[in-house]
UniProtKB/TrEMBL annotation:
Keywords recorded for this protein, A-Z: Methyltransferase, S-adenosyl-L-methionine, Transferase
Name used for this protein in its record: tRNA/rRNA methyltransferase
Origin species: Tepidicella xavieri
CDD domains cross-referenced by the UniProt entry: SpoU-like_TrmJ
GO molecular function: RNA binding; RNA methyltransferase activity
Similarity remark: Belongs to the class IV-like SAM-binding methyltransferase superfamily. RNA methyltransferase TrmH family.
SUPFAM superfamilies named among the record's database cross-references: alpha/beta knot
InterPro entries reported in the protein's UniProt record: Alpha/beta_knot_MTases, RNA_MeTrfase_TrmJ/LasT, SpoU_MeTrfase, tRNA_m1G_MTases_N
Length: 253
């Protein structure tokens, strides 16, 4: 059985692009669409979205609008940003096909999320840093501008081909139905909570200066993304943070 696949649109400006994205997803057999802070709160019901969906209105009806990326990533264990411009810091930049083949080789994640930024300026650095990889679609060197829905279609196609077309259940080992916490990977929301806890603890012991944090927390984010901690390991690390806070509080008495 293929992993849970989610497509996340961040601060989308044009309702028509949301409808076209729904159509692109349905063509490839996906229907998990989440919008983070779109320009129009009622974007899923706007005429432009329904018209561009062209038969994929059911995908729009299932879609959700949320206020934070954390909410959108609930349950996801592998996060893929999309950006045409390489970043000087953050996750590695890779072509979709090569990265997907590597995922299959080492075992598919439980949940995969694909993030797409605003049409005008793309993903923010902060959102890219949340990701395990930055996917860059190979394009002509002198012109790499892609419409949002076109980019979604390309990623959805490559991912569908990777997980086995319409026979994914026959080609991928079925997941265990009752994994222990020591075996289940922590989702993106759990990792974000851990980082927030550690930021408090590191500040309390004087290691992190909130006024000049530099890139300590994004670097810790990337470390955790590479490590892919389990739920049990996240609980252990949060226990360490809790002990640091308690020790710092006692030292001030």
């Amino acid at each position: 059985m293929a992993p849970v696949t989610r497509f996340v649109l961040i601060e989308t400006s044009h309702a028509g692009n949301v409808g076209a994205t729904a159509r692109a997803l349905k063509v490839m057999g996906f229907d998990d669409l989440v919008l983070v802070r779109p320009r129009w709160p009622d974007v899923l019901q706007r005429p432009e979205a329904i018209e561009r969906a062209s038969g994929a209105v059911d995908v729009l009806q299932r879609a959700r609008v949320v206020s934070t990326l954390d909410e959108a990533l609930d349950g996801m264990t592998h996060v893929c940003a999309t950006a045409m411009t390489p970043r000087d810091f953050g996750p590695p930049t890779r072509p979709p096909r090569g990265h997907f083949e590597a995922l299959v080789a080492r075992g598919l994640p439980q949940g995969v999320a694909f993030l797409f930024g605003p049409e005008r300026y793309g993903m923010s650095n902060a959102d890219v840093w949340r990701s395990h990889v930055c996917l860059r679609i190979p394009t002509a060197p002198d012109y790499g501008s892609l419409n949002l829905a076109a980019a979604v279609q390309l990623i959805a196609y490559e991912w569908r081909q990777t997980i086995g077309g319409w026979e994914a259940s026959d080609r991928v080992s079925p997941p265990q139905t009752a994994l222990l916490a020591s075996q289940r990977l922590a989702d993106a929301q759990a990792v974000a909570g851990l980082l927030s806890h550690w930021a408090q603890a590191l500040t309390a012991v004087g290691y992190l200066d909130p006024a000049a944090p530099k890139k300590l927390m994004p670097r810790l984010q990337q470390l955790l993304n590479r490590a892919q901690p389990t739920e049990a390991e996240v609980h252990i690390l949060r226990g360490v943070a809790r002990a640091m806070l308690e020790t710092a509080a006692r030292a001030k008495r």
